[in-house]
Amino acid sequence: MEALDRLASLIERYAIVDGTHETAIPRLMLVRSSRPTEPAHAIAEPALCLVAQGRKVAMLGDGIYRYDRARYLLVSADLPLIGHVTEASAERPYLCVRLGLDRTLLSSLVVEMAAGARPAPTGTPPGLMLTPVAAELADAVARLVALLDRPSDIPILAPLIEREVLYRLLTGDQHEQARHIAMSDGRLAQVNRAIDWIRRNFAEGFRIETVAAEAGMSASSLHEHFRAVTAMSPLQYQKRIRLQEARRLILAEGRDAAQAGFTVGYDSPSQFSREYARLFGAPPLRDVARIRSDPDGMLVA
């Protein structure tokens, strides 16, 4: 697809070293990796991830999502994912655009499109979806990134092209998923309120009834719909958030394992070490030493 070739060229121009790069365009990030990476844990926020070159795998619960030039990834909630680049080389690096989804802008577009629009979506969508890349979407994303060549145009034209990108999502194969993200009163919105509460209070114990009340759901309904979106229960989600935050504290702030475990809510150092090793494949000290020996091998976006 010509638009994806153009997009790959643009990403290479502005992401000249491996890593995740913020841009002058709000919510737009460029990702590059010149080699396959180790599985990395991260919290993915609602976003469109469009690959221009290479291939990546995202894992959520038991689900495996492979995306490349043919399929983009749409994230509809704050999800603790495991992701790694599976196809990349120095000659043909992995190149990807990540556009964070502005729910307010998405909602305003849904309202503008209301006349003659499809009925409101029902049910609870999964938090991750793969969709074939349409030429119109790829072209709009490429034109958005091309604005980096003309910084003075960004304040005026970037919002217009971003609206076009979101319009393509709302009218494409994944239109129901995109409309769920825009809704403020659907099941996805309720689950997102529960997710937000857990993320703000992850270090504290909670009763499922408390989170259900925050979401405006019954406890049984929360369990059902929370699992549909995140592929895990609220308590499993809390545990994943705790362990990922503990890893960050050890890596970025130099906390020892016991301090990090206590900070994120663990009373028992041995339990913390066991659960940490179960998730990351090694106890804290060995895991952190491995990451520090090869920091470029862990691409988190």
From TrEMBL:
UniProt xrefs under Pfam families: AraC_N (PF06719), HTH_18 (PF12833)
MF annotations from Gene Ontology: DNA-binding transcription factor activity; sequence-specific DNA binding
Keyword entries, A-Z: DNA-binding, Transcription, Transcription regulation
InterPro entries: Homeodomain-like_sf, HTH_AraC, Tscrpt_reg_HTH_AraC_N
Keyword Transcription in annotation: yes
Descriptive protein name: AraC-type DNA-binding protein
Domain HTH araC/xylS-type: 192-290
Organism: Edaphosphingomonas laterariae
